[in-house]
Design goal:
There is one protein chain. Helices cover 50% and strands 13% of the residues. The longest helix has 29 residues, at 99-127. The termini are far apart. It has a seven-stranded parallel sheet, with helices on both faces. It has one domain (10-267): NAD(P)-binding Rossmann-like Domain (Rossmann fold, 3-Layer(aba) Sandwich), CATH 3.40.50. Helix 3 (68-76) runs parallel beside helix 4. Helix 2 (42-52) links the parallel strand 2 (34-38) and strand 3 (56-58). The chain is α/β, with parallel strands linked by helices. The radius of gyration is 18 Å and the shape is globular.
Length: 268
């Protein structure tokens, strides 16, 4: 299957008002893609559109709404690339969420990307070209204390993408999942104000943008954007989850989760 050629392609990027979304938009624009950018914050979208110049549309949308994804897909029209990046932090113990907060997190983090794929992938397959990118998280490979609701959505994205990739085999439509770790200076972790234990390390939003481009152009199924210790931790958790959980606790995972939950509570 030939990779989508980004120059001249139309790419829909969700969550484009946040740090990761803006970095992804800049990376795709730098490769010559025409962009349709969506988020709830109109003003930030307009500022990004003004920065990037021609070939950029702003499509404000609320993906927590039941009809939000379908309506967005309708307004976007035929697109060649979907980057499902929008997400809510959803940090905290499961019993600290109200039912409404839990539903909202799953609506944005899992249901909306699935619904967008449902709306857009058939057209891509009919045209014989396209690519779907789902921005998950290293929390979509390894769960930890205070992250059950967030991990539920991010693990779900990986499972959905894996099955969807097989469903779309030989259709000309590629599927990539990107797994960022802790991102410095922008994004959910940085905005929470939490500090990492020594040795874990961070990445930049620009590295996530580059990973999205790499996933599309090289037809990668999965791309990790995390330092080696974080990637090794995810690998260990897949082989020995109980042992990995004990190591996480010793490294201060519970305290980190509590700080992140407190810093992100207002975004639920």
């Amino acid at each position: 299957m030939a990779a989508v050629q980004l120059p001249g392609s139309i790419a829909l990027v969700t969550g484009a008002s946040g740090g990761l979304g803006q970095a992804i938009a800049r990376a795709l624009h730098g490769r010559g893609a025409r962009l349709a950018l969506t988020a709830r914050r109109d003003q930030v979208l307009d500022e990004l559109r003004a920065e990037l110049g021609g070939g950029v549309r702003a499509l404000p949308a609320d993906l927590s709404d039941a009809r939000g994804a379908a309506e967005l897909a309708e307004r976007a029209g035929a697109v060649d690339v979907l980057v499902a990046n929008a997400a809510l932090p959803a940090s905290g113990r499961y019993d600290d969420f109200s039912p409404e907060e839990m539903d909202r997190a799953l609506d944005v983090n899992l249901r909306a990307p699935m619904q967008l794929a449902l709306a857009l992938a058939p057209g891509m397959a009919e045209r014989g070209r396209g690519h779907l990118v789902f921005v998950s998280s290293m929390s979509g490979k390894v769960a930890s204390a205070g992250g059950s609701v967030y991990s539920a959505g991010k693990f779900g994205l990986r499972g959905f993408a894996g099955g969807l990739r097989e469903d779309l085999r030989d259709s000309g439509v590629g599927v990539t999942v990107v797994f960022p770790g802790f991102i410095r200076e922008s994004g959910m972790f940085a905005e929470s104000g939490a500090k990492l234990p020594p040795g874990l390390g961070t990445n930049s939003a620009e590295e996530v943008g580059a990973a999205v481009v790499r996933g599309i152009e090289k037809q990668r199924a999965e791309v990790d954007v995390a330092p080696l210790p974080v990637r090794l931790g995810a690998y260990a958790a897949a082989l020995a989850p109980g042992l990995a959980a004990r190591v996480q606790r010793r490294l201060g995972a519970v305290e980190l989760a509590e700080r992140m939950a407190e810093g992100q509570r207002h975004k639920r």
